Amino acid sequence: MKRFAVALCCFSTLFFVGRARTAGQEDSSSIRVNVVLVQLNVAVTDGKGNYISGLHPENFSISEDKIPEKLATFEEGGEPVQRLLQGPGSPVQTVSVPTGSVPTGTPSQPSVQDANDVAPATRLSGANVFILFDTSNYMYRGFVYAQDAIADFVRSLEGVNKVAFYSYSRDLSRATALTADRSKVLLGVRNTVAGDNAALYNCLLLTVKDAAPLKGKKAIVVFSNGPDDASSVPPEDVTELAQSTGTIIYMISTQQAQTDPISEAVFERVSKATGGKAYFARNWRDEKKAFGSIREDLAHLYALSYYPAANPNHGWRTISVKLVGKDVQRYRVRTRDGYRLLQTAQVTSASNANPGAESAPE
Amino acid sequence: MKGLLRPSAVSAACLVSLCACFFAFSSHTAQAASPVSAAPPQTVVVPGPLRSFLRMAGVSQKIPPEEVLPLLARNVILRGYENDTETEFLILLDRYIHQARELQTLAGPAQEIRIANCADATNLVHILGYVLRYPCGQKNNALVTANPERAFLTTDSGFPLTALEEALDKDAPFSYYYPSTPVPVIFSESAWVQLGNPKRRREGNLLDVLLRDRDVSRLYSAMAKIDTETGMALQQSPGLGKLIPVAGVLNFYGSQLCIRSGRVNVPGGADAEAGWTELVGASPRSPGDFITHLMAKDNGWLAVYYDDLARVDLNQQKHLTQSSRLKHLYEAYRAPGIEPSATRSVFRKGSELLVLFTRLDWDSSGQPYVPGNLQIWGEILNNQKGGFKPAHDWARRSRSWNSPEQLLEALVSYSRLETDSGPLQIYLALTEIDRARPPKMRLSDGAVRLIANKFPRYHAWFLVFSEFPDLNDTSINRFVMVADSVDSLSNVALRGNSLGAFQANLSLWQILARQGEIPSAQMNSSWQAAVEPFAKIPSSVQLFDAARSSLGGIMLAAGGNANLSQDELIDLLAGPPQNTPEGRRMHRDMVAKIHSVLDDQRLASLDTLFTLNDGLKEMAHGAHIGDRLLPLAEDLREFELPRPIFTESEKIDWAPVVYSTRHAELQVRTDLTKVIKGPGSPPQLETARGQLAPFLRDTLVGLNYAYYEPPGAQVLHNNPLFVRSHDFSGITMVGGEPFWGSPELFGVGATAGGGAYLIGSLADLPYALASMEEDFIAPENVQALIWKELVPGLLVSATLPRWWNISHDELHAVTLYQRSGEQLITAAGKNPELRSRVIQILSDRMAPQRLDWIDQELRQNNPNEVLPHMLPDETFYLGVEFRQKFAPDFAAAGSDAAALEALGTRDPAAVDPERISRDFGVPHPTLAHTYGRDLLHMKQLPAFGGYGARLFGESWESGNLYWARLADEMGYPPVMLNRLAPELTLHMTARIFATDIEDWPAVLRAMQETGEQFRQGKLASLPPANAISQRSGEPEGTTGGIR
Description:
A: Rossmann fold; 2 domains; 8 helices; 20 strands; 28% strand; B: mainly alpha; two-stranded antiparallel ribbon; 14 strands; globular
């Protein structure tokens, strides 16, 4: 009933769908899917939360709406990308493959890494991280401690490709645009000023949109104090966009969020749905621990990608990732649980709302 | 362009005698003002870098030094206290000043903080509230918070902590220039310090006094708004000390005061002095007495009255202050016991009175214009219900009225009632409708009665009739009758869908009529064709048929075919057909924008709905076409709700009132495939047709949302329930009463509510959408805000107007008027007579202080100081007025003036100010009760609260004139304004760095910065002009328009 015109373009995880406008009298409508590569960032842990490394492509089984999918690329931590499958009619030019990347030799056995072990900086290579800092009024008391924790986090992201620092209250402030220069990011952190209301989901939406066009591993780390009181978009829409653009959301919140059941629920669910985690910090020491945990999580992600098999579903597509093989099925998998085909404007319109992106003050 | 025409009716001699503050006494002013302006300004020292102080004081960092103390004083008043207790703002600012003084001491006479190495930094780091994580010399060292209070001041004030950290980590020297900053002070520091609490006089300088003494801050803020000569006069008499008790009133209502040569220039000029003397109880020739009495009388209400009169143009002043009118109107206004003080609120009072005085029309005999007649007005007043104490008295008195003056007095009295649908608002709406109509077509008595009776319910919709004067009384009548009928539907869901579809179609009519796509001769017939089908809606099936028929009537008038496809309808909405390549390209862009919103809202296509409807009808009559309809029914089912993250019970518990996706959920459950496959019985098929009505409503509503999409919109593209959630019948409000007023945003900040949505009608949709989407504009300056009171108005002024039929000549005329104004100002620097004329014209547009400053600069031949501070609307106005008043001398003003004259000879229509006003003006729904575009050329209005909150934004008329000039000078075709105006306004908004909502110089600054960036090609989202002209030679795809 539906016709598909498939074409590859340069975004690795975005799905755009443009519905050809046909008169109702016609018996078919056509869907044009422009991008087909789905990228997943997958964390594998044991029952104690320790990361499992050393898994191989054959240890992962992916299905989309219960349709089995074949892995196209595989990457663990900062290791080189393994290209496993050629894209449909086009080279896999969307995935960055370091020179001499194809691994050789016998793969090692999976190993358990203690959650307290610090991963080497190289494991973070290629990742882009957006930090979104809540500066609304009720952050005032812990404002400077939070800045300290964020500054430490920024310093710890040595291997990360680029970092952006945004802050929000009622409006978003793109304090430091995505940059490889850590000192600029630190300057942005130390340059924040306290604000008024908290429009977390509005500002998170804009941040997801800024992250959307980026290739590879990308994450947003939200440092919040809890309740949103000024957003007009619901968290559901932000979550779907993050899922559909392959953006991981981590949430760190002060204890105030945990006293608000709605915020607690949202933080847990949004982060889980996007493959991230939520942390509720009782004090600034917990905040530092949370940032450390996020850094480790980013360093231990497996990056998988696949070209979806033919799927007539043009709404929400459910992704399932399972571990295959002896002794590995007991481990836990964390990744996004699906995505939705996007209209082009849903992503591109972010640039209209971002007039300052080309010259964000530093 | 009523404002432009009005002065021309008044003789030049009269104008000279009235020119409020300046022109009447200019010969004396020159001598009086010179010594004042020549004196070197006294200063007060702000410790530390000014930028840091401004950050802590909540003041824009782009202001000139002379504005530092006035804005500090203002912020202390507004933000420094809550219930007489110091707020965190004031506490932090005070702490910062102490910290800055410590650092100042550390910096020493060289005004530079110098640290030789890490070990040398102990004291500095302590003052800053930090500590080094590791001992000096260790790697990866960093500063961590030791004293949160101090550390907060350090970062909030923008101390370069990162640079210090880097230096300490490397054990390297660190230096930071840390100057004290002198800023100008009004009069002298001692003059203010001695006003403060005697116990605290020794505690510090003026900064400390302003922080600790609200009364002094109020007076300082007030005096900063007054021109130099007036201020000097007040300092001498009555003296600052005696003004302290009235400082609050003076701060709100004193900016229009003007003393020249020992007397107050009162509104109405010399002819009104006697009247003011009687009202105030002191003579304007004794300025000190006059002003203290004026400010103190009736708890500040006489000052409100004075201030409003001083803000209207000279012609209105003349009328309003004639003979006994001045006194009688005030007696009506001051009705006792309504409110204790004119300064009780955060916002000024008097907005409705100002609107009345601004828009009041006069008949040929000089009497206030009366829509209908006095008897009807008696009825209107007698129909008013409670809530306003003097209402009963006015109702009684109205029974014996025999003069329009009496009506005016009642209206002035009613201006104290805070409402959007009282007698004053009825009067203003009726006046605007009649103003737009030819004299012989004025509203009939019956129409006046009808509008007045129905005003509380439909007031927001009566703006259509002032925007389109071709709509006659029958069209008004039919609208009211049918709206009443829709309102009376008892089935809540049917009523909500009917309201939505009815309003959506009328709004589509409004769009097409505004774009000139509905011929004038068909205005009434097409309006009535859009209205009439909704007269009787017994069921959803009839609703579907009515909405389709109504839409067909509109499409027939605009497109010549009642059965256009959705794409063809969108072509019409996007704009009229274009006959140039760039016009067609722009048209396609507008089409794509509309489609984009419809797609992202996942709305069913009109074509699908109409085809399904027709097919179901055929099936009910036995046709076997199920196979053809099934794919369409499947299409309807493709709509999915966003993936839930809350359970149903959580939604009910956590957002019981806000949660409103029932309409959308109903659509998700709608499955026509069963009845098609069945096939169902004729009644079942008929019921299925009715199920299409909610879909049709949403698509029609969605077309309106899409048309008015603000630049940078996010919700429209990311919350697919937004259109569907529009609550027309008020079911989510207590009482469930549908209302026809402006839509209001509901559910903001309700996390489990499924997203914000609109409740109300579609009457004011552009503003409502702009109010929501502005929250997604990211300010470019640290600490800057997007001002809710201003920005929606700016966005609407750029998105509602469209520029499809503008000629190159007209666009160029807009430029030439502005440039001519600038040339006149430049020439005025060297020519006293010309300066006198320029100042005379500008006196109707500017507050005394600003006019005084311009005059002083021009006297010193400093036009280049003046020009960057002139609003485009002001230079345009100057060009237009000078050309009208001093036609023989106009062309000699400069090359642009000459070019304008030549253009006018060649193409008179292009230089017609009336036409330019219609094409490049902005809508004034609050001020002028119409969405018609106009340039009213008022003084920039102050900020008001409540119903007057939009006035400030509506008085900003410079945007489109400025963008038009940019487009012209950069070689863009006029049609490109359809894209440039919204997008440049978006960029401008992100750049606004204002201290408060009245900070219109910040808007001008942001506009100029945006213009400069645009000229330099730094706005990546906008194509260069040469690309447009090159593209216009490219082969085209589909053509825009369908006729």
